[in-house]
Amino acid sequence: MKIAPMSEVKNNFTKYLSDCEDEPIFVTRNGKITAVIEHIEDKDIEDFLLERSKRFRALLNRVKKESHGTSLSTYRKSRKI
Fold first, then answer.
1. Which domain holds residue 33?
2. Greater confidence, 31 or 52?
3. Rounded (5°) CA angle 33-49-47
């Protein structure tokens, strides 16, 4: 895990983009972590966005309650996703 101040990341952004392929970079502002730079591949973008979508999580929770539950992993397997 690397931690770097925002000014350092700002001045050396290309270096930090390269470094984040090995491990996440935690960016600080005034000594507090405010962001994370993390490597992501094209094939993982949709999962990344859905995992962070409040609307999508609410929809999954509603469906889970109504249908007595199906996990996301089970759904993906059934749809071969």
1. 2-37
2. 31
3. 115
- Residues 54, 75, single domain; the answer is yes
User: Quick one: 51 and 30 in the same domain?
Assistant: no
| Burial class of 27 by CB neighbour count within 10 A (0 to 12, 13 to 18, 19+) | buried
Which of the 8 DSSP states describes residue 30? T
Q: Are 19 and 25 in contact (CB under 8 A)?
A: yes
pLDDT band at 68 (very low <50, low <70, confident <90, very high): low
Q: Is 79 helix (H, G, I), strand (E, B) or coil?
A: helix
Check which CATH number belongs to the domain holding 23 and give it: 3.40.1620.10
Q: Does pTM surpass 0.70?
A: no
Cα–Cα separations (whole angstroms), residue 1 to 11, 41, 76: 20, 19, 31
Domain match, 51 and 26 both: no
